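Long-time lurker. I teach an intro course on protein structure, and each term I like to show students one example going from raw sequence to a predicted 3D structure in token notation. This year I'd like something fresh instead of my usual example. Would anyone be willing to generate the tokens for the chain below so I can use it in lecture? Attribution to the forum is fine with me.
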Amino acid sequence: MQIVTCPQCATKNRVDETRLKRNEAKCGNCGTLLAAGATTGTDSTPIVVSDATLDREVIGISGRPVLLDCWAPWCGPCRIVGPIMDQLAAESEGRYRIAKLNIDENKGTASRYQIASIPTMLIFKDGKLIDRLIGAQPQQAIVERLRLATQFRAGA
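-- Reply from a regular --
Happy to contribute to a lecture. Here you go:
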């Protein structure tokens, strides 16, 4: 899922990437057709990454942790974790970044990090994988791991 801001009424919409690519996505508020380039582009929403953009958008980020939510649209527990990721991104205030990776569409990354079950959340800092959470976790548990990751220093 991707967050897209409607150009007509400025409503934020959760949109399936496939519908967006096919130009089938419409604003839930006013019905305006949504364009793929209309994402908010800020860290206040999870950034959608792919095998091609992972190194730039996740591993290449330094100074703050990046939580990568590995999910699939058919996964019930992933749908439970999705709104938590949205809320964490909205509350991040630049302390960390939230990213989402659909493993069905990005098998290279799933293989690279040995994702055997979903949801799996990987926490990176300064290009290194420093933590892994497997399964649906309560928001407070994820927040605590992000807090620890924010304090993490390589070699410490």
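Some talking points for your students: The beta strands are 2-5, 12-15, 47-48, 65-71, 97-102, 120-125, 128-134. Residues 47-151 form a domain with the Glutaredoxin fold (CATH 3.40.30.10).
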